Amino acid sequence: MNQTQTMPRTETMQLNVGPSHPSTHGVLRVLVELDGELIIKADPDIGYLHRGIEKMCEYRTYHKCMPLMNRLDYLAGEVNNFGFCLAVEKLLGVEVPKRAQYIRVMLVELTRIASHLFWLGTHGHDLGAMTPLFYAFREREQIMDLCEMVSGARMFPLYCRIGGLAADLPEGFLPLVTNFAQAFPKRWQDYDNLLTQNVIWKERTIGVGVMSRDEVLDWGWSGPMARGSGIDWDLRRDNPYSSYEEFEFEVPLGKNGDTYDRYLVRMREMLQSARIVRQAVAKIQQTEPGTIKCADPRVSLPPKERVYNEIEALIHHFLIIQDGIRPPVGEVYQCIEAPKGEMGFYIVSDGGPQPFRVKVRGPSFINLSACDKLARGRLLADLIALIGTMDIVLADVDR
Amino acid sequence: MSAAVNLLQAKFPDEVLEVVEFRGQTTIVVQPERLVDICRALRDDPETSFRYLSMIAGMDYLPQSPRFGLVYNLYSHQNHNRVTLKTRLADDAAPLADSVTPVWSTANWHEREIYDMMGIRFQGHPDLRRILMPSDWVGHPQRKDYPLKGM
Predict the structure, then answer these.
(1) How many domains does chain B have?
(2) Is the Cβ of A354 closer than 8 Å to some Cβ of chain B?
(3) Is B10 a residue whose pLDDT tops 60?
(4) CA-nearest residue of chain B to A54?
(5) Residue A2 CB neighbours (<10 A)
(6) What is the pLDDT of residues A267-290, one digit of tens each?
């Protein structure tokens, strides 16, 4: 640093990182201005994956918006669906039965583990640690298999539906989840052994991308990004939804607000998620099987057997699918604690079957907006650590 | 939740147009002219302490007039509550609003996105350019009169 200051000034260099680069986690282009190896300015260029999801929602019924929501943060597809369902249910003023709420919590927490595992694997890989990726993907694969069991799809289960769930849990599902959640802390130890005390890992992450508490609030960071700086805030605990208030879990906090602390926070969050999954399984077992949809006939589809055998049920089914549900005129903002931070849905209804406006508050977009602030004055190699620590998914950034 | 409403009604009596409660959420409709002052007051008042801007949504209410609007969602880590601010912009042809980037840095990208998608310009924004669409794009895709397909 001192050496570069005493040397005569030279021209700065423009460097394109991405849009197609393994460390950018998708099609992200960062236009970097460099003075030697120091970053003077980092301007993320986004939009390569812009599909206009918000606009598309205005042209389809609420149910048909659901597959689009999956594809926001595709590493945690079910979480987005869950949030959208909660928002529409709030708009409608309906509540889903307890069993459905617990099953949703269980799936969302499993998805959180899967998302954090993906982050752990790729973040480690970016910084030169190859092995954690293989360990992390081993467990992620098991979660994908569980998702496949409930719905047939691995990445986009689309299992949450407005007013409840698509179907009840398949036979023999809960014992598998219990096995996974009980074995997970032991598996977790493998990742912890590889990285937490690893000297190279610490060198690359400690003191990199420091955000103070005030800066975090100013830049609108949420989730693990905020908690890494010691902000004691978790929407699951502070504004509970879907019966989260009945679950016991801790909110891990960091101290220094650097990349290493955010790593520690996400690591410990995975253990808490496994703990919530274990509690959810116990709670699900106490509920009546089959109670997975709210009773309101304007929202929930009738059971399939009745659709096949009764003309009224068939008409009812047809009406909900073709005509859609019609929430009252109004607007709601519902947010959830997604793996990457606050995932919010602002929905405006004009009383029609299609939403008048859907605004998605994606955590990745907000986290990435502070990229320039974090990268200024750092080495180019730190940019890779910073993109990794922000845990962005470009589909969620661009929407 | 009344703290925010009380604050605004005491400090900005002419700016508050309406207070709406729906599904347990408070929405305050305000005039656009002094929006930055309102936001700053909500952020700095020790009782409300809305130090976190959750999102800004650009709105196109076509065929109504005034056509364009903005929706701000604020969160207080102190009280763990939210408030929504809504405003409608007077000019339908060239909508213009004051930037709240000086109040919350996070507004920077939100406002760039709204400019890109809705064509609402923000006075005092440090770097107002397109963010999602290519820089040479013509039109603002999220306006209601912009076609869904057939470009």
Answers:
(1) 1
(2) no
(3) yes
(4) B142
(5) 6
(6) 999 999 999 999 999 999 898 888
